[in-house]
């Protein structure tokens, strides 16, 4: 109950768009006594919200701390299911671990795990994902798609298309997709996606789509190895971004793409992916566990594999590190 009053109070304060609201108005809108409103306002202040109180005017929200807590996300959320159930952690080893556990316990489709900081963020190929506090979106989304196991690679491509759309909407930055799951700005990585699943035979139990987005990191604070390959939205834009609004936009795009995929199949996602990909028509080298292939990246096939035209013919690449000039 306390949590929902608090969510509603924050929603009302945000909706008033920094103009004053009387205690009476707030209490009517939230549906609790003025004394209860006062108590919640005090709590919010202790957590870093600045709420100005002026006699005969009421209250006004002056500053919101940059957190990805549920009460910051809900006022922006336009989805039906995605992000409606949230596990929020100030710090954790990896949101993937928490999401696997929750999915095994029966988390509903669209539930998300989100953290301010990860100590052992997981990247692809066993790499570490640098996840310092309050600088990014470190999120795992739980899906239960009624699709065969062999179609699971579609979900990674779908997620990169959805995140790219959300970024394009909010920033107008030139975000490109690099197969299979990276988003780049001016050749540097701003987002990585890690898809993990549990299933058997040809049946999927659940899928965890993990997303790491470098939002407000000051690149100058990063270790040297990361500066060379990565960037953040703040660095590219020259201003910070409100993470909870971005997160809500990503969930909206993700839900829409996912529903579209379940209804219409992979073809529209593939089309959009191909338009946004930075590598089609380029000469690339794909390092796979079976060896390296160099050739021209032609297109995605219906399974989501990248078709590479090499001197030996066309090779479908399912999982690899990609290099190109
Ligand atoms: C990549 O290597 O490109 C994928 C990086 C995925 C990182 C995200 S951050 C949220 C989620 N939790 C993790 O431990 N990893 C993913």
Automatic annotation (TrEMBL):
DNA-binding region: 23-42
Keyword terms: ATP-binding, Biotin, DNA-binding, Ligase, Nucleotide-binding, Repressor, Transcription, Transcription regulation
Domain BPL/LPL catalytic span(s) in chain numbering: 71-262
Catalytic activity reported: biotin + L-lysyl-[protein] + ATP = N(6)-biotinyl-L-lysyl-[protein] + AMP + diphosphate + H(+)
Xref: SUPFAM superfamilies: Class II aaRS and biotin synthetases, Winged helix' DNA-binding domain
EC number: 6.3.4.15
HAMAP family: Bifunct_BirA
Enzyme type, top EC level: ligase
InterPro entries: aa-tRNA-synth_II/BPL/LPL, ArsR-like_HTH, Bifunct_BirA, Biotin_CoA_COase_ligase, BPL_C, BPL_LPL_catalytic, HTH_11, WH-like_DNA-bd_sf
Family: Belongs to the biotin--protein ligase family.
Residue positions binding biotin: 118, 122-124, 189
Presence of keyword Iron: no
Pfam families to which the protein is assigned, alphabetical: BPL_C, BPL_LplA_LipB, HTH_11
MF (Gene Ontology): biotin--[biotin carboxyl-carrier protein] ligase activity
Function (record text): Acts both as a biotin--[acetyl-CoA-carboxylase] ligase and a repressor.
Name of protein: Bifunctional ligase/repressor BirA
């Amino acid at each position: 109950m306390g949590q929902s009053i608090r969510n509603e109070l924050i929603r009302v304060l945000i909706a008033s768009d920094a103009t004053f609201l009387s205690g009476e108005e707030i209490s009517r809108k939230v549906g609790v006594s003025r004394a209860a409103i006062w108590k919640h306002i005090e709590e919010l202040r202790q957590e870093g919200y600045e709420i100005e109180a002026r006699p005969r005017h009421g209250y006004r929200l002056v500053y919101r701390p940059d957190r990805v807590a549920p009460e910051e996300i809900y006022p922006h959320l336009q989805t039906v299911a995605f992000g409606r159930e949230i596990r929020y952690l100030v710090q954790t080893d990896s949101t993937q671990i928490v999401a696997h556990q929750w999915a095994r316990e029966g988390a509903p489709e669209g539930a998300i795990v989100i953290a301010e900081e990860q100590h052992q963020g997981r990247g692809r190929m066993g790499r570490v994902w640098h996840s310092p506090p309050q600088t990014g979106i470190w999120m795992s989304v739980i899906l239960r798609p009624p699709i065969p196991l062999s179609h699971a690679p579609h979900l990674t491509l779908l997620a990169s298309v959805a995140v790219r759309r959300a970024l394009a909407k909010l920033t107008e930055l030139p975000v490109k997709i690099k197969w299979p799951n990276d988003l780049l700005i001016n050749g540097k990585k701003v987002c990585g996606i890690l898809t993990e699943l549990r299933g058997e035979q040809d049946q999927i139990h659940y899928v965890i789509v993990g997303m790491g987005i470098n939002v407000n990191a000051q690149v100058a604070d990063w270790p040297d190895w990361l500066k060379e390959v990565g960037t953040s939205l703040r660095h590219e834009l020259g201003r910070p971004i409100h993470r909870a609004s971005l997160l809500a936009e990503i969930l909206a795009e993700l839900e829409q793409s996912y529903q579209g995929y379940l209804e219409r199949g992979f073809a529209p996602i593939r089309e959009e992916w191909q338009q946004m990909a930075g590598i089609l028509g380029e000469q690339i080298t794909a390092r796979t566990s079976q060896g390296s292939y160099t050739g021209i990246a032609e297109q995605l096939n219906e399974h989501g594999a990248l078709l590479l035209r090499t001197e030996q013919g066309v090779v479908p690449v399912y999982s690899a590190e990609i290099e190109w000039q």
